[in-house]
């Protein structure tokens, strides 16, 4: 097996045994008197300069302090992961992720509450989803314990980059990549698990702003038997053309239909979709082409707890014209109301109800994620 070299600028490595428990990790991270995991300002940026940048944040990568890297062993297990200073990595030109797209991404958020503690939301669910996706892509994956441990370490080491909760959050991006060299269509001989983070401004700063979407009739996001139900990296490149066309025509995004009947709702580019009629909330049923979003799952559970009837079913696109509200949900946007949908030149506008249900569900979920209310669902992990 070929070894792929990774090079990082000023690569300082903090090693962690994969057998460490998360609690032990937190004790290490909290041991500020030793300074072992405390991030230090990089590139000449002081703590003050970081504080001044919160208002200018966008959804773009920011060079933070540390990334986490862990390689697979010959038996497919992962071990000897650790933090390294943020920097570029070197991979072989014949790496499986470059030549055949053998890779998976995940997304989650870290907030700071008013007491300064860090809050992670349903991180175990992300670890589980990565393992399910990895199995579909013929890839080994870290255990859920290793995944949580790695996320915890990376977020703790980059603590100074977490905005105040009223300014934004830390976007956490785990990646699993086939990094061993291949020429034929075959699984990689080596895999890398990597995590980087970047601060992001709140999407809903100043209130929820409805988006306008157009139904895409020609390009499909996923097909039955494909990988639309996992976060394969190739899922997103295929819809860039449709998304660019939608934005060029003045829309925020495209809404995709199923590839067989070209009639049933699936997703917006990177978010699940729901619609509201009276006291019923409906969303497309998971059937192999729709991503089982963690935000989606949370919204369904919250809606049930608030007395709504929730239906997961095939949703014909025509039903949108009779809906009271439509909204999207995803990791970054939380819950985002849809102001209008256009299908074949016909536009339907929402908002007469004031997006009451969207606002209600958004507040319920965001307040848990940001630590503003008690988490009675048991979804959050608190890092002191």
From TrEMBL:
Essential cofactor(s): pyridoxal 5'-phosphate
Xref: InterPro entries: Aminotrans_IV, Aminotrans_IV_CS, Aminotransferase-like, B_amino_transII, BCAT-like_C, BCAT-like_N, BCAT_family
Family designation: Belongs to the class-IV pyridoxal-phosphate-dependent aminotransferase family.
Catalytic activity annotation: L-leucine + 2-oxoglutarate = 4-methyl-2-oxopentanoate + L-glutamate; L-valine + 2-oxoglutarate = 3-methyl-2-oxobutanoate + L-glutamate; L-isoleucine + 2-oxoglutarate = (S)-3-methyl-2-oxopentanoate + L-glutamate
N6-(pyridoxal phosphate)lysine PTM positions: 231
Organism taxonomic ancestry: Eukaryota, Viridiplantae, Streptophyta, Embryophyta, Tracheophyta
GO CC annotations on file: chloroplast
MF terms in GO: branched-chain-amino-acid transaminase activity; L-isoleucine-2-oxoglutarate transaminase activity; L-leucine-2-oxoglutarate transaminase activity; L-valine-2-oxoglutarate transaminase activity
Official protein name in the record: Branched-chain-amino-acid aminotransferase
Pfam families (UniProt xref): Aminotran_4
One GO process term, biological-process aspect: amino acid biosynthetic process
Record EC number: 2.6.1.42
Presence of keyword Electron transport: no
Keywords in alphabetical order: Amino-acid biosynthesis, Aminotransferase, Branched-chain amino acid biosynthesis, Pyridoxal phosphate, Transferase
Domain of life: Eukaryota
